[in-house]
UniProtKB/TrEMBL annotation:
Belongs to the iron/ascorbate-dependent oxidoreductase family. Keywords: Iron, Metal-binding, Oxidoreductase. Gene3D superfamilies: B-lactam Antibiotic, Isopenicillin N Synthase, Chain. One of its GO terms (molecular function) is oxidoreductase activity, acting on paired donors, with incorporation or reduction of molecular oxygen. This is Fe2OG dioxygenase domain-containing protein. It holds the Pfam family 2OG-FeII_Oxy. The lineage of its organism: Eukaryota, Viridiplantae, Streptophyta, Embryophyta, Tracheophyta. It comes from the Eukaryota. InterPro entries: DIOX_N, IPNS-like_FE2OG_OXY, IPNS-like_sf, Oxoglu/Fe-dep_dioxygenase_dom, Plant_2OG-oxidoreductases. PROSITE patterns: FE2OG_OXY (PS51471). Residues 171-271 form the Fe2OG dioxygenase domain.
């Protein structure tokens, strides 16, 4: 660690867990049982894993990357139509520098955030953007919900328990598209500051340009490289809250060193906005297993976190209970 508490070392490891999604959905009973155990171990030990054989067509992903690139290549005037305002605006586009640390170092990125469930929202341009995005988010949502079923079982619950308790049928899902221009477009450091995500699980797909790093034992570890056609799956804040700290939310960041442009398709998946999320009642008993987080409505958490992040703080600071 550096003097200001920031991790300073970086290493690439090939031991990030890899989960075969097809065994969860169409494997034998023994194969499904084993992959559920593997998901639980990955969520507990790493807070992330790579997902292969997920069934989302590679051609659809490539088309989404292409149309996303087209969006960010529009003129500034065209993109201003979708300028960011409130955190719950259906469509938000933004660009600029984000603060990285107390030394006021900055990184550049552009982003487009779409609320895609329970209602689907998307810019009306470029052509086919809405059509492709609608198909993409339906498929990634199906993957995310099946993973949540597996996570639910790994915690010792029935597969439908988390869906039912968190009202996931009306769950809040985003499609966040991050764009890091090539060095030919901007001559500045590109990336995204260390952070955790709201929701249960985040699905992330990159365009082949590396940059995603997760914090592991005080070191930044590259994630995603060398595993073809795979989603990076990352534990998020409300999985930590609901599991009462068993499955920790994963701190991650983006540092783009490759000179090419980087595009990521990111799907945070959470409870319904009006769901009050706290530790599962099945994981606390008031005696030996005390709740470690205060309950908070998901909508309030999103709004609170958006306000705090600019000050370098986290909504966890408000709900974590010191035991």
């Amino acid at each position: 660690m550096s003097s200001n508490g920031e991790p300073t070392s970086f290493e690439v490891q090939d031991s990030i867990p890899i989960i075969d999604y097809s065994l969860l959905t169409s494997g034998t009973a023994n194969e499904r049982s084993k992959v559920v155990q593997d998901i639980g171990k990955a969520c507990e030990d790493w807070g992330c894993f790579m997902l292969v054989n997920h069934g989302v067509p590679e051609t659809l992903i490539e088309e989404m990357m292409d149309v996303s690139s087209e969006f960010f290549e529009m003129t500034i005037e065209e993109k201003l139509e979708f300028e960011a305002h409130g955190v719950l605006d259906p469509v938000r586009c933004g660009t600029g520098l984000n603060l990285v640390n107390v030394n006021k170092d900055t990184l550049w990125r552009e982003y487009l955030r779409l609320i895609v469930h329970p209602d689907f929202n998307c810019p009306h341009k470029p052509a086919r953007f809405s059509e492709l995005a609608s198909d993409y988010v339906k498929r990634t949502r199906a993957v995310a919900m099946e993973l949540v079923n597996g996570v639910s079982e790994s915690l010792g619950f029935e597969s439908s328990y988390m869906n039912r308790e968190l009202n996931l049928d009306a769950g809040f899902q985003l499609l966040a598209i991050n764009y890091y221009p090539s060095l030919l477009e901007v001559d500045i450091s590109r990336g995204l500051m260390p952070h955790t995500d709201h929701g249960l699980l985040t699905l992330l797909y990159e365009n082949g340009v590396p940059g995603l790093e997760v914090l592991r034992d005080g070191k930044w570890v590259g994630m995603g490289g060398g595993v073809s056609n795979a989603f990076s799956i990352i534990n998020s804040d409300h999985l930590e809250i609901f599991s009462n700290g068993k499955y920790k939310s994963k701190l991650h960041r983006t540092v783009v060193k490759d000179g090419r442009k980087r595009i990521t398709l990111v799907n945070p998946n959470g409870p319904s906005l009006d769901t009050i999320v706290g530790p599962s009642s099945r994981l606390v008993d008031g005696e030996n297993r005390l709740p470690r987080y205060l309950p908070m409505k998901y909508r309030d958490y999103l709004e609170c976190q958006t306000k705090l992040i600019t000050a370098g703080k986290h909504a966890f600071d408000m709900i974590r209970i010191d035991i």
